[in-house]
Amino acid sequence: MLATTFLLLLVQGIVQYPQQAGDGLDKATQECMQHRAEYLNQQMTQLIEELEQKNLEHSGVASGALLMWQFWAVIGILVLLLVLWFGLHKIRCDPDNSGHKDRSCSNSVEKEEGHNVVAKKEIESDDANVEEDNKGGNEEGSNVNAKAESKAGNEAKEDYDDAKEEVNNKKGEEVNAAGNEEDKRNEEDDGHNVKRNLGSLLEECIQLPVLDLDKGCSVIMDLMDKLIHIFGQGLFNSFYPVPQKAIGVGNAFEGWSPHAQDVVYCVLVPLSPPPGHAFHLELDTAGVLQRNCCVRVELLCTCTREKLGEDMICFLHHSEEELRRKQDPSLLHTLCTGSYLDVEKTVHWFYRFVRVAWLLLPQSRHWHLMLQPSSRSCKFQLSKDQESFMVEVIFGVQQGDSDIFVGSQPTVAGIPSTTWLETYAVVEAKFFRHISRQAPQDSWHCKCLQLLSYILMGVGFSSYALKTVVMHLLNTIPLTQWCRKDFQQRLMDTLKYLRCSLETKQLNHFVIGNERFPMEISLPSEFRVAEAPNLFQHLASNPDAHVKAMQEYVHLLHQLKKMLTYTH
Questions:
Q1: Once rounded to an integer, what is the mean pLDDT over residues 296-320?
Q2: Residue 537 CB partners (closer than 8 Å, separation 6+)
Q3: Is residue 291 predicted with pLDDT exceeding 50?
Q4: Residue 500 and residue 479: Cα distance in Å, rounded?
Q5: 3-state helix, strand, coil in the chain (%, to 5)
Q6: In terms of C-beta density within 10 A (0-12 exposed, 13-18 middle, 19 or more buried), how is residue 400 classed?
Q7: Alpha-carbon torsion 215, 218, 221, 225, what sign?
């Protein structure tokens, strides 16, 4: 039945199919011919599909003769249609009918491109918007005095817009060109897909091995706990500084690290004064940001404890000869230079003790410890089979009962060995732990920081500035808006914040002068109300440094744009 119907349609098509005509063929006739050809083509397709379906449904019961008849009928029909198509093609290619050919082609192209008009208009509109943004960015200027600074500022604005355009293009490439109505129906789903694709940028572009930072932090903290325990036993009845429980600081303990195989697990070991001693911090009030400090060691009277029968005699009220015969020397005679605790002597003392204490640890049976040379911190590598961890131990003295310390962290060459530097590493690590407790489980704030700092590896631009920007944003943008689906917007927020800070040469310190800093983290009382130091103060006083910083920001945008292009 289907084959018979198809043959009738074919005969109808041949009878009504347009014959070769000259220039006198009118437009109405041509359109009628075109519509008829399309109608027959649709009917043919539908019938062939029905025929194939019928064949599948009746393949088990239909007779062999009937199947063969239907097969050869379809073959014959297809051959006739090919001949018919060839004739039509020849008519269209006839030079005498060129005028109608052009009109027919034009109509055909119009129909074929009809569904793409909306997409084309959207692309043109996006291009116009990007051009408008670039013009606006260039007209704003960078408000710098030097010509080189102005040029760098304009480049930064243009590259920021380009990077923003690349991010938006990832969304544009997935827009369905079938029409506005379908676009509206799928817009929300497409947006989520794009954000997921952009969210996977870290895995696709950074190409780092999966870093099990939690495991590394756990191994290091377990080791430090055991070391500190042995220190407590070995230093009993001595007058060396008393190491307290180590505190994990730095990017690895904050939950991010862009350096792949070169992750450094940094811990701060607080030092308390031994019995009969006191520490007094003498801060340099001339500086506000990371002030220098000297730790003055004072001897205390212990006569009361001596009367209570404790195995200790007072350093202040006994002769030096008696003290030398009956008691270990005071801290002033071991790790101090003059009256001040010496950083380098303290580090050297800790190195010596680690060599001895390591042999008493259970880890020494399975792990290999290799000490690294350093004058202001204790560095060592812990390795076993394919696992390897680099550790840096810095020492700190607490300011009162706050989470602010003066530390032994390495700094510029030439600094006196009795100088300790104010450090905010503990409060910043506690802030990231506070955020991790408050944020959703799938928060991507650390990945945003990891991506941007990875791009800046090998460039002079400070990753601490990037971290400061992200901390400011974490303190103002709701934590529910840092999930994977928000990664695109948070990335652009970070770049925008950094660009504005570079242009104004103003980036406020996150801890000092921040009234919104979490109250659960202990700060000295004057910190919250103090004027926030400017981390970019050197850019305001040094035009060359500002130009270089702007160029490094442009480099950041270029690298990000390459990554976005790579993932297209």
A1: 81
A2: 505
A3: yes
A4: 23
A5: 60, 10, 30
A6: exposed
A7: negative
Closest to 395 (Cα-Cα) out of 441, 332, 348, 429: 348
- Number of neighbours of residue 507 by Cβ within 10 angstroms: 23
CB-count burial class (<10 Å; 0-12, 13-18, 19+) for 181 = exposed
Give bridge partners of residue 340 from the DSSP assignment.
Answer: 296, 337
Predicted confidence (pLDDT) per residue in 418-463, tens digit? 999 999 999 999 999 999 999 998 888 988 888 888 877 766 678 8
CB 13: neighbour CB atoms within 10 A? 19
| Helix (H) and strand (E) counts in the chain | 19, 12
pLDDT tens digit sequence for 380-430: 999 998 889 999 999 999 999 999 999 998 877 788 999 999 999 999 999
d(CA 121, CA 183): 13
HEC string of 450-499 equals HHHHHHCCCCCCCHHHHHHHHHHHHCCCCHHHCEHHHHHHHHHHHHHHHH
Taking the CA atoms of residue 251, residue 256, residue 262 and residue 266 in that order, the dihedral angle to the nearest 10 degrees is 30
- How do residues 493-536 score in pLDDT, each as one tens digit? 999 999 999 999 999 999 999 999 999 999 998 899 889 999 99
Q: Are 354 and 380 in contact (CB under 8 A)?
A: yes
C-alpha dist (Å) from residue 455 to 205, 257, 451, 452, 459: 10, 12, 6, 5, 9
And the tokens for 46? Answer: 């539908």
Cα torsion angle, 126, 128, 129, 130, sign: positive
Alpha carbon distances (Å) from 241 to 278, 332, 406, 419, 421? 10, 11, 15, 17, 18
| Three-state DSSP string of 387-413 | EEEEEEEEEEEECCCCCCEEECCCCCC
Residue reference for tokens 């928060």: 443
Element (H, E) at 271: strand 264-272
